[in-house]
Design goal:
By secondary structure, the chain is of the alpha+beta class. Helices cover 40% and strands 17% of the residues. α2 packs across α4. The protein is globular. FE2/S2 (inorganic) cluster binds next to α2 and α5.
Length: 151
């Protein structure tokens, strides 16, 4: 059974013209997450100075929605404090992209987890505790709580 997917203009824009692609050498925090089911992998680099994210870059080996969500996620975290960056959830990323088709929601979850993983790495390297920051989830799957609350 084939399924026609509708993507918003913003998703198409960030997919065809992704922002902040690349890596940051000696980044303050690096996070890599993946989804075993689709095999997509996302790596996020954050440069943090005085508790503020001054730069963010990503590399995503994945679907178009994963590229678009990584792109938007890097845009959203730039200029935010570590605490504020932690609040950039997959829902926030999806909203900023004017939505995603339901089967692509997990792609945005990858972006949220990549941010968290990079923040975790930063916190560990600097021996600091960020309230609400949990150890990264390496393998995102669709049993995540998000899916249970999304019906
Ligand atoms: Fe898996 Fe998009 S299909 S991240």
């Amino acid at each position: 059974m084939s399924q026609v997917m509708e993507y918003s203009e913003k998703v198409m824009d960030h997919f065809t013209n992704p922002r902040n692609v690349g890596e940051i050498e000696n980044a303050s925090g690096v996070g890599t997450v993946g989804n075993a089911k689709c095999g997509d992998i996302m790596r996020m680099y954050l440069e943090i100075k005085d508790g503020v994210v001054i730069d963010a870059k990503f590399k995503t080996f994945g679907c178009g929605a994963a590229v678009a969500t990584s792109s938007m996620a890097t845009e959203l975290v730039k200029g935010k404090t570590v605490e504020e960056a932690l609040l950039v959830t997959n829902k926030a990323v999806m909203e900023a992209l004017d939505g995603l088709p339901p089967v692509k929601v997990h792609c945005s979850l990858l972006a949220e987890e990549a941010i968290h993983a990079a923040l975790w790495d930063y916190a560990e390297k600097n021996g600091i505790t960020v309230p609400g920051l949990k150890p990264p989830v390496k393998d995102i799957d669709e049993t995540e709580e998000f899916y249970k609350t999304e019906s």
